[in-house]
Write a structure and sequence with these properties.
This protein is α/β, with parallel strands linked by helices and 625 residues long. Helix content is 48%, strand content 14%. The chain folds into 3 domains: 133 residues, no CATH class; 116 residues, NAD(P)-binding Rossmann-like Domain (Rossmann fold), CATH 3.40.50.720; 268 residues, NAD(P)-binding Rossmann-like Domain (Rossmann fold, 3-Layer(aba) Sandwich).
Length: 625
């Protein structure tokens, strides 16, 4: 099916031409008799009318003047009009004396005949020229506007069309609605036919669509992803209508329709969490969050606040980010039952004071050093924060009767290839063994991969590189990563905090592993750029400690299902607390010697599966070690 504007039907063109001939004849009579036509001429007009109409019709049919597209009139069309009217005039002129010899009367006065011939030619030619000029202007105006398709023909889609025409009608024109609802397909909305999703690609090609707007909230993430991929392949920008609750005074403006972002590229089905059970765990209690000013910690704080805790204690050593979080909670979210604590989790005296003063019931431990290359160069700091800091908090939690301790780990702790991942795995072992060693505090470890928008994520860097014109740096063409959004990760953390058992390591369903270079290519297209023309991708090589792909399970761990389809449990036997505790104390004591080789060597003893990659510490993995 070719979606083009049809030319004016030939029958209509013929009728217009005949109408203009009759108009020309009437005007010719008016001109001939100085606008005062004698009564006797009215009587003969009927006979003249019939003769002119019949001869003109035959002439038009012979010369086929009606078959040319009026909007594309050229000199050949003008010539045919001239010949057809000249022929009709000649036939009438010849029939005049013949009829006079036979019946003694003229078919049409010669003066009328001449005036009509000139006037009819003028009218038919000018009609074609004017139509062509008008159509050209309209076509130019139409083509100057960006064609838009709205996906979703419900009320949101209709509102989006109205917003476009009201606020941006000079730049955009809606050429089609597309909707998966069969009851809407084929109907006209504001004069525009609703098409099926299967027709979308053809619509994009036919109208050269450069913008598609999502206005269908019922689309599943997988359906939406398929449509986004199609649009990116066609160099069509994709925008999305925000939820109705965010419209200004219940009215949508075009400025609120935003371009989709990288989060949409990795969007997954919404998480169903057990809100009532989470509320029972958190409501009316004192909740302490470490690393509260970080990307994960701050989102945790905002989500926890919705469950009405008695008090939220926000611990972080980053002064400015903590100040900003406090301001946002008070001014924007109207949260006031919180306390801001500047403190270092590695400082046992400071943390002891926090526990004694606030007496937390539940602790979410999100504070950590997590940048792989930096920790590869500073193993002692990874040890001090990720291992000692976790041990300080865990020991104080038991000492002060904290009900639940949720430790936020990382997939880099699985078969670690870097210091950061190894330090988190050491912390995991301590938390797990302590959880099995005592029954006063429930210790739960959560383990997940990269989080979109977090301070450790490469996505913000890619965005900056694209916005400044590149190049975009990717370490390796085959590198892959798991991704989830910050809100999604924090929802699962709260779920695990509610249902997890002491000593468990909780894994989150990260979906499919994403090839980073493919993700970057999509991000480049989102910005309307062409790879290798507008921007380049450069491969820089794996960084120290970096590996091609991440894992969620250790070889000795068995994955089992849980209370939530998006959460799994890594079933593994915890090491005896007495042994692990002693080894970790010795590891922490090595900090004072500031010997990186000694520190990393001890980490490898505690985590046998730790094998360095692209790192100076690979020497410690030799078989003779």
């Amino acid at each position: 099916m070719k979606l083009e504007k049809a030319n004016t039907p030939v029958g209509i063109v013929l009728l217009i031409d005949l109408a203009l001939i009759l108009l020309s004849l009437w005007v010719s009579y008016l001109l001939r008799f100085n606008f005062q036509i004698p009564y006797v001429e009215y009587i003969t007009f009927t006979r003249v009318f019939g003769s002119v109409f019949t001869v003109s019709l035959i002439s038009f049919l012979v010369f086929q003047t009606y078959r040319s597209a009026i909007r594309q009139t050229h000199i050949g069309d003008v010539q045919r009009v001239f010949l057809s009217i000249a022929t009709a005039t000649a036939v009438l002129a010849i029939s005049n004396p013949l009829l006079y010899l036979l019946e003694g009367i003229y078919v049409i006065p010669f003066s009328i005949l001449i005036i009509n011939g000139v006037l009819a030619t003028f009218l038919l030619v000018m009609m074609r020229i004017l139509v062509r000029l008008l159509f050209s202007d309209w076509e130019a105006l139409r083509k100057s506007k960006t064609p838009v398709i709205i996906y979703g023909a419900g009320q949101t889609g209709i509102t989006a069309k109205v917003a476009i025409e009201r606020d941006a009608g000079v730049k955009y024109r809606v050429v089609s609605f597309v909707d998966g609802n069969s009851s809407r397909q084929g109907k006209k909305i504001h004069g525009i036919t609703v098409k099926q999703p299967s027709e979308l690609e053809e619509l994009i090609d036919s109208f050269q669509v450069r913008l598609l707007i999502f206005a269908d909230s019922d689309l599943s993430p997988s359906e939406k992803q398929t449509l986004i991929d199609l649009c990116l392949a066609k160099n069509t920008k994709v925008f999305s209508v925000p939820p109705i609750k965010s419209w200004i005074n219940g009215e949508l403006s075009f400025k609120q329709i935003k371009k989709i972002n990288v989060r949409n590229l990795l969007e997954r089905a919404p998480i169903e969490i057990h809100s009532l059970e989470i509320a029972e765990t958190l409501a009316g209690k004192t909740i302490l969050v470490t690393g509260a000013a970080g990307s994960i910690g701050s989102e945790l704080v905002k989500q926890i606040a919705q469950f009405k805790p008695a008090r939220l204690v926000l611990v972080d050593q980053a002064e400015s980010p903590l100040f900003e979080l406090d301001r946002e909670l008070r001014d924007e979210l109207d949260v006031h039952l919180h306390e801001v604590v500047i403190g270092d989790i590695r400082n046992e005296a400071r943390m002891r004071n926090v526990f004694q003063h606030f007496k937390p019931h539940v602790l979410f431990h999100a504070a950590a050093y997590k940048h792989v290359p930096l920790m590869e160069e500073n193993p002692s700091e990874a040890l001090l924060t990720n291992v000692k800091g976790t041990k300080v908090l865990a020991d104080l939690a038991v000492e002060h009767g904290v009900e639940r301790f949720i430790f936020i780990s990382t997939d880099k702790a699985v078969n670690p290839t870097n210091v950061m991942g190894a330090s988190k795995r050491v912390a995991e072992r301590y938390v797990q063994s302590l959880g099995k060693h005592q029954s006063r505090t429930t210790f739960i470890t959560t383990r997940f991969g990269n989080v979109l928008g977090s301070h450790g994520s490469a996505i913000p860097l890619f965005i900056k590189q694209i916005e400044r014109g590149g190049p975009v740096t990717v370490t390796h063409p085959e590198i892959t990563r798991f991704f989830m959004t910050i809100p999604e990760a924090c929802q699962l953390v709260l779920e695990a905090a509610t249902f997890g058992n002491s000593g468990e390591i909780v894994l989150f369903d990260m979906g499919k592993s994403v090839k980073i270079v493919d993700l970057v290519k999509k991000m480049i297209k989102l910005y309307g750029l062409t790879l290798d023309k507008d921007i380049q991708i450069e491969f820089t090589g794996l960084r120290p400690g970096e590996k091609l792909y991440e894992e969620l399970l250790l070889p000795a761990e068995i994955q089992k299902t849980s209370y939530n389809s998006r959460i799994m449990i890594a079933e593994v036997e915890a090491s005896p607390y007495e042994i692990v505790g002693k080894e970790i104390d010795e590891l922490i004591a090595a900090f004072n010697r500031q010997d990186n080789i000694d520190i990393v060597s001890r980490m490898k003893s505690l985590v046998p599966e730790y094998k360095s990659n692209n790192s100076v510490f690979e020497q410690l993995d030799e078989p003779t070690r």
